[in-house]
Amino acid sequence: MFTGLVGTVGTLVRKTTQGSGARFTMAAPGWVGVPWVLGESIAVNGVCLTLIEGHGDQFSADLSRETLTRTALQASSPGTRVNLERALKVGDALGGHLVSGHVDGVATVVRLQREGEGRLLTLDIPEDLTRYVARKGSLCVDGVSLTVNTIAGALVSFAIIPHTLSATTLGGLEPGMAVNIEVDLIARYLERLVQNP
Fold first, then answer.
1. Which of 22, 35, 106, 114 is 20 to 30 A from 64 (CA-CA)?
2. Which CATH number does the domain 8-86 belong to among 3.40.50.200, 2.40.30.20, 3.10.450.50, 3.90.950.10?
3. For residue 196, what pLDDT is reported?
């Protein structure tokens, strides 16, 4: 479980094909000196991956064909910057919202326009996910917990504050880029309860 509050921005160092999947090796300079734990969960651009090895400021994780097919990580190449978050521990502050790291779909960046010191981000999200999105609700975008400003059809906008721009990769988004999105966990379970009373 995660919060959508990015711990550090890392870089994809190496991408190795393994059958129908891949192994990603990432550098996380912000976590130098923090011990790696074999099998721990790390969210990479919002995708929960399992650490298989870690040395110094680098760690590796294996991605299945399913993960590559259903997320924007498929298009990643060495040099790509990624948002990283380690899993919550019991007693940690829940500053963002509950995030599982199970991506629901891939959205397309429509625009990132200046708004004062911040930016206004507009995404075109998959039509079948719009029912989970509510104005002032939460959506996880590339591993970042964001509050929905407006929703009009499949277009969803968010106000990005300067701190978020500097602490994540969102400031580097451009029109046409793909981003991972995860809908609010509570909305997903509420739908299931309503459908199966």
1. 35
2. 2.40.30.20
3. 73
